[in-house]
Amino acid sequence: MGETGNKASVKRKRWGNIVKLIVFLGIGFLFIYLFLLKLEPSQKKAIWDSFVHADYWWVTATMAACLLSHFARALRWRLLYEPMGQVPGLNNTFGSVVVAYMANLVFPRLGEVMRCATLRTSEDIPIEKSLGTVVTERAVDILAFGIIVLVGLLAMYGQAKEWLYGVLTEKSASLPGMAVLGVVAVVLLVVLVLVYRALRGRLMKYKAFEKIDSIIVGGLDGLKSIFHLKKRSLVLFIVYSIVIYLLYIASGMLIMKAFPETHLLGFGAAFVLYLFGSVGMSISQGGLGAYPVLVWQALALYGISETVGLAVGWLLWSSQQVIVLVVGLVYLIHFSIANKKDK
């Protein structure tokens, strides 16, 4: 009877793994389908033409730089778990980052939730703690990008500087309204914190509130994690942040090598290309459509024609998305069959 029960248990587990694999594969292919559905026929043709005329060695190198930037991000994100005593495996952390980028191609900000969910599945780390670390990471990215823009304003000359200044001036027009909203949000947050602290003791007897409280505490642990990093980890966090942005710029340098017309352009052009492209990423979801156009505008400052500029833009954008879709799908399969890490 015991042997029969064991066989039945193994069979159920095997079928459970098959079902999970099918579900995760279905999610992966759905993301790819929805992503392709967003592309206009003219955009698909532009991507195809850029791939046909490019040097594939440099395209491969660009994809490698893209993956390395995600790997550096995984290394950096992993550091934020150290103060909480829950350091996830590097393979699962990297996979979660890539799956997040894949999900963000289809639904804005879905990726942030998905990378926390995949770590919950693979590492048994509470989602609320992961969300706290993700918010911290995003805040660091905003600060880092602000520093890069400032460097750009100081270092760039001519039309590139005028363009960047024009973008910032346009964005600053909405600052007064945003400042009012910010003040209101801060005041509401302070009021909520005071009310929460005053009533916490009385409400802890309710199961529902106890669950909410654990989510809040876990999220705060994640948010505060960067302030509790050891000196060595803090240095590594800064180093990984620098590496991430250098790899972003390196991707532009490598893709320019794929075309004879842009082969000789160096770090300065790649830096301008990164700044213009980043604005494109913020204009539309995943930079679809806007990113290649702004890359062309950046290269036009260096006398590159519209045809070549758009080809570079589409190739840089699509090569980044292709590697994310392929590797993301592989990791969805991995997460579908992986067991939770033993505590």
Helix/strand order, N-terminal first: HHHHHHHHHHHHH
Largest sheet: none
Unreliably modeled segments: none
According to DSSP, the number of beta strands is 0
Structural class: mainly alpha
Helix count from the secondary structure assignment: 13
The averaged pLDDT comes out at 77
How would you describe the oligomerization state of the chains in this entry?
single chain
Give the distance, in angstroms, between the N- and C-terminal Cα atoms: 32 Å
- Gyration radius (Cα, Å) is 23 Å
What level of helicity do the residues show? over 70%
Overall, the morphology is globular
Strand content: under 5%
Q: How do the strands and helices of this protein lay out in sequence?
A:
Layout: H1 2-37, H2 41-53, H3 56-79, H4 90-104, H5 110-123, H6 127-155, H7 158-172, H8 175-203, H9 207-224, H10 231-256, H11 267-283, H12 290-300, H13 306-337
Helix pairs in contact: 1-13, 2-13, 3-4, 3-10, 3-13, 4-5, 4-13, 5-6, 6-9, 10-11, 11-12, 12-13
Describe this structure in words.
This protein is an all-alpha fold. It contains 13 helices and no strands. Helix 11 packs antiparallel against helix 12. The longest helix is centred in the first third of the chain and has 36 residues. The radius of gyration is 23 Å and the shape is globular. The protein starts with a helix and ends in a 6-residue tail after the last helix. The model has no long low-confidence stretch (mean pLDDT 77).
